[in-house]
Amino acid sequence: MSRSLEGPWIAPEPDDFDGRAFYAAKTASDGKGRFLFGWVPTRAEERDYNRWDWGGNLAVHELHQQKDGLLAVNVPSTIDTAWNQSVDAQFTLQKGARLSGKDITIDATGSFGWAAAGAMPERCKIEAQVQFEPGTRRCGIMMRTSNDLESSYYVRLEPQNHRVVFDSWPRGSGPDHPTTSIDGGYMAGLDRWMTLAPGNPIELKVFVDRTIAVIYVDGRVATSARMYDLPTGRWSLFVEQGSAQFRNIKITTL
Questions:
Q1: Domain total for the chain?
Q2: Which residues make Cβ contacts (< 8 Å) with residue 198, sequence separation at least 6?
Q3: What CATH number does the domain containing 140 carry?
Q4: Within its chain, how far is the Cα of 17 from the centroid?
Q5: Domain final residue pick, 50, 82, 114
Q6: 171 and 122 in a common domain
Q7: Is 72 helix (H, G, I), strand (E, B) or coil?
Q8: Contact, 6 vs 42, CB < 8 A?
Q9: In angstroms, rounded to a whole number, what is the distance separating the alpha carbons of residues 233 and 145?
């Protein structure tokens, strides 16, 4: 970015709009807004940890400028409003979870807590506002989760690392990801850096279209991903070693 077309040009921090699963993006305008359109690449043999292929499915972010001048991305309003058919969440409160009106608080200090919802539709949008307490290590949304929690995808906020991560369990291996440690590992290239502070509400929007997931965090950061290995399951809210409140929880379909 620069104050002049003659420069000097500097790279901001962060200097990207999405992760590894959003490729070859270009921009265009409709005369009012500016949109960033690229593809979510497929993966070889349709397995989560195999190499990324060339080509895939269209994904579109809307670019906007923040007060500090930096560019950020959010979901285009026409896409956001298309997912408007409500689905009953049917929450079952598990360890550490309690209900207050329509809000859910999960207290998992020194442990793992969650609130399990019903089965995820093949195509859906999941929304929640997350506000975590100081010292919380991880919190977020679980997707296509087995009843015994032994398999799941995760949209995970990691305050201590100041990042949002897309992850899966059990983790696999492949040419792009030969090994993954249990401690601190995640799908390579599917993490995004952002400042995460306790007490500040964070807006999560997760769009799932069969094998594709596109995640927006606070209308600033996007993370796209593929979801091949776990085709079905429930969705849940979770906290690991800490406490968080989840508000404005919704699940909708097209």
A1: 2
A2: 132, 133, 134, 135, 136, 159
A3: 2.60.120.560
A4: 13
A5: 82
A6: yes
A7: strand
A8: no
A9: 5
Domain shared by 131 and 169, yes or no: yes
Residues 109 and 56 in one domain: no
Nearest in space to 204 (alpha carbons), one of 167, 237, 171, 226: 237
Tell me the three state secondary structure of residue 193.
Answer: strand
What are the phi and psi torsion angles at 45 (to 5°)? 60, 15
28 shares its domain with 120: no
List the pLDDT tens digit at each of the 254 positions of the chain.
888 999 999 998 878 899 999 999 999 999 999 999 999 999 999 999 889 998 899 999 999 999 888 999 999 999 999 999 999 988 999 989 999 888 999 999 999 999 999 999 999 999 999 999 999 999 999 999 999 999 999 999 999 999 999 999 987 755 554 444 343 445 778 999 999 999 999 999 999 999 999 999 999 999 999 999 999 999 999 999 999 999 999 999 99
Distances (CA, A) of 102 to 133, 141, 178, 189, 246: 19, 17, 43, 35, 9
- DSSP lists the bridge partners of residue 208 as 124, 213
230: part of which helix (H) or strand (E)?
none
Cis peptide before 14, with omega less than 30 degrees from 0? yes
Domain range enclosing 50:
23-82
